Amino acid sequence: MKFRTEIQIAPFDVRIGYGNRLLALGSCFAEHIAGRLSAARFRIATNPTGILFNPLSIAEALGNYAARVPVRRDELHTDGEVWFHYGFHGDFSALTPDEALRRMNAARQAGADVLSAADRVLVTFGTAWAFERQGAVVANCHKQPAVEFRRRRLGVGEIVDTFAALLAGPLADKQIILSVSPVRHLGDGLEGNALSKAVLRLAAEELAETHANIHYFPAFEIVNDDLRDYRFYADDLVHPSPQAVAYIWEKFADALLSDETRAVLGEVEAIVAAAAHRPRNPLSEAHRVFCRRQLERIAALRGIDFVAETAYFRRCLEINS
To answer: Is residue 121 a contact partner of residue 175, using CB atoms and an 8 Å limit?
Structure first.
């Protein structure tokens, strides 16, 4: 007897390998998968200007990166304590406008550089509900009074049209892995969350049907239909649990990583884990042999970014010499 409908994902036509350059944008779920890729030493940057939840804010960030538009002083706002920008996460706010501009322009420049180099872009839509201020959708409300904003649900057509423009421009030469976040937005109510996810799923489907370089990965369906149990949610009953994220990562790796990459993935993860190991006696001969062995393993895997691990094991040998 079967007690669950396990999702079967056919291998994608587009694959990801260690030779690719990746950019991940979107909700906190995007950061979970990007974190897995980073831990496996893929070359990936995630949300250079902060977490983004709605599709229009993701598109605006991409447009600003592509145009290399600097942040102007008159775009900043202050609540009397810090200076902030409605297009940036609060981590980029500062006590002075000059420091805020420095942080934000550095982040936007980093985003521009990563987008220019990337050949794979991972985009995760989080919610179709957005907040507008003076007619423009904001990425972050920065805890400002609700009266300053208008909350509305984005339409399928405007999401599709906005991304179609990017796909004809800065995203034209890149492969896009698109997903809908399984994170539940309970602040919208269960009905509002369901409606939001339906809008995002329809927009994703239309984009994938009309653009050959967009590929839909079913993260939303994996959690809601395959796992389909509250034990796969964190204590807040909103975010997927670590176990669920690990399961999604397995599905992602099987469907999207190249055969050559999956063949060495276990070895890469073992080297990273070895660098995190702290020996009982760092001055022992046994530890010296261990470090030398790890450097040999690293040398055998060409083209993978083991900068931190290499530095750590070499340092161990120097201490032991």
So the answer is: yes
Measured over all CA atoms, what is the biggest interatomic distance in the chain, rounded to whole angstroms? 67
User: Could you tell me the two tokens for 68?
Assistant: 């290399």
Mean pLDDT of the chain: 93
| C-beta separation of 27 from 97 below 8 A | no
For residue 71, which of 106, 46, 95 has the smallest C-alpha distance?
106
User: Which domains does the chain carry?
Assistant: 21-257 (3.40.50.1110), 260-321 (no CATH)
Short-list 267, 272, 266, CA closest to 310? 272
| Cβ-Cβ contacts under 8 Å for 176 (sequence gap 6 or more) | 121, 122, 123, 167, 211, 213, 214, 215
Q: What is the per-residue pLDDT across 6-45, written as a single tens digit (0 to 9) for each?
A: 888 988 999 999 999 999 999 887 889 999 999 999 999 9
Cα separation, 293 vs 148, in Å, equals: 60
